[in-house]
Amino acid sequence: MVVEETVAPARSAPLTVWLALLGALALWASAFVGISSALADFTPGAISLVRYTVSSVVAVLMWLAYSRRRREPLEAPARRDVWPILVSALMVVVVYSLGVNYGEQSVTPGTASFIAGQAPVFSILLAFLLLRERVTGRGWLGVAIGAAGVVLMLFADQTGVQVNTGSLYVLAATVGECLYFVLSKPLLERYSPHALNAWVTVAGTVMLLPYAGQALSSLSSASLSSILLLVYLGVFPGAVAYLLWNMALAHLSVTATTSSLYALPAMTIVMSVLWVDKLPSTLGVIGGLVSLVGAGLVANRQSH
User: Fold this and answer.
1) Is it the case that residue 159 has pLDDT exceeding 60?
2) Which distant-in-sequence residues (6+ apart) come within 8 Å of 173 by Cβ?
3) Alpha carbon distances (Å) from 286 to 169, 273, 292
4) Are 105 and 37 in contact (CB under 8 A)?
5) Which of 19, 112, 165, 284, by CA, is between 20 and 30 Å from 68?
6) 83 pLDDT above the threshold of 90
7) What does the buried/exposed string (b/e) look like for 209-248 if buried means 16 or more CB atoms within 10 Å of the residue's CB?
8) 156 neighbors 225 (Cβ within 8 angstroms)
């Protein structure tokens, strides 16, 4: 099965689309740094549940406001789209958020963002395995270089020569996010970004309810600043950023949008230095740069 994309060429996309994409990246970069700080008072599961509970409220309110402004009835997903929406929620809210949260217990925000920047590499692999899309030699070269960079990052941000399990968590999170990108693209051809954002966020939050005990325990002892930080993560990198991403994805191809993730490590490292004074290790930076070269080759249209 091959999903055909009926979107305008990237160059003809309006400026607002590119601004939405830039806004999503900036907010996601701040999330990597914010999560690193929140882990001082919250468990990884508690961070996800509290954050996406806030995101759910905001996403639903934005959807209601959007429908009221356009004087349209609230959309309801068709029966055939219920499972893709639920799987999308599982991938991006549960797998991605928990993977990053658990990963950042032992990797820096910069290294985590380098791994997340491998989305184009995983996207081409998923397209080859699931959609039987053809990959040229240049594409496979990019995959190989990207894989080499990821292997280096698996050993980053620690002493001794051993795999950092935190990197494996972030790696799994990135694969989950790529699956979300692939699944959400055809859904955005049938539903508004506001509606899809609300459905996915609420469904994913329900899936996180097993962490309610941890969330209540962490909230009872956390500082006010940490609680407010989770509110920020829920409102902006959560609800607002994914709405902006969906708005961009509705007008651009998956390749164009995922290629923008190259900018994520640079933005994250700058914020990390300014906010928490953390830098990736030398091995993490080298691995990140190598992997971005591979991702760049993969994203080139001639590689497909």
Assistant:
1) no
2) 95, 96, 97, 98, 99, 100, 103, 116
3) 20, 18, 10
4) no
5) 19
6) yes
7) eebeebbeebeeebeeebbebbbbbbbbbbbbbbbbbbbb
8) no
Distance CA 290, CA 288 (A): 5
Helix count and strand count (H, E) for the chain: 15, 0
Dihedral in degrees, nearest 10, Cα atoms 293, 295, 299, 304: 100
Span 255-259, average pLDDT:
69
Percent of the chain residues past pLDDT 90, beyond the cut: 47
Q: How far apart are CA 36 and CA 49, in angstroms?
A: 16
Residue 304 has pLDDT above 50, yes or no: no
Question: Which amino acid, residue 191?
Answer: Y
Rg value, the chain, Cα: 19
The model carries a pTM of: 0.82
Whole-number pLDDT of residue 154: 61
User: Residue for token digits 């091995």?
Assistant: 283
Q: Which residue has the higher pLDDT, 144 or 74?
A: 74
With a cut of 60, say whether residue 4 has pLDDT above it.
no
What is the residue type of 262?
Answer: Y
Find the helix packing angle between 96-103 and 15-38, rounded to 10°.
50
Contact (Cβ atoms closer than 8 angstroms) between residue 300 and residue 143: no
The pLDDT value recorded for residue 238 is 93
